[in-house]
Amino acid sequence: MLKTKWQHSWKRIEKILDTILFYFYNKYNLKVIFGSEGTFLPNIYRALGDSTRRGILSLLKQGNKTQKELVEAFDISQPAIKKHLKILLEEKIISESMNGKYRIYSLNVKMLQIAYLEMHQYIGELLDQQLVSLKNYLEKGEFRDEDN
Question: Of 26, 33, 70, 116, which sits most exposed with the smallest number of CB within 10 A?
Fold first, then answer.
């Protein structure tokens, strides 16, 4: 059974994206990586790899929050939230300050920007070759079902 160009192309793109994600997970599964500008970069994959941590970042995007406010926003325990905050702090994605007896958490926008630019650069370098290969493959016009 022949597939349409779009169906076959999408399957190929999914394989490329899986390859890219696998590459980054294996290559940069370190606590901290060193960026091209001489800065320490967070392991953004560790920081964003959990839905609770992504939720915390979404809340902090709206403004600074106390630990109590963050705990109240989730249906998990305070120690569990503290564990997620610790990971985000270790990766320097968020910062912590004290206001009296309260810990105030905020996004570290500069580190997020640096991590985003570095990821964009690395993914771009990987995709350049993959997209050239995909372009060449599509121009050949060979669209057959790989399942047969």
Answer: 26
The rounded distance, in Å, linking the Cα atoms of 2 and 109 is 48
Q: For the domain bounded by 5-140, which CATH number is listed?
A: 1.10.10.10
The helix, strand and coil proportions of the chain, stated in percent and rounded to the nearest 5, come to 60, 15, 25
Domain limits, the chain? 5-140
Over residues 94-129, the pLDDT tens digits come to 999 999 999 999 999 888 888 778 777 777 777 777
Q: How many degrees, rounded to 5, is the angle at CA 54 between CA 86 and CA 70?
A: 60
66 within 8 A of 27, measured Cβ to Cβ: no
* H/E segment holding residue 95: strand 94-99
* Whole-structure pTM value: 0.59
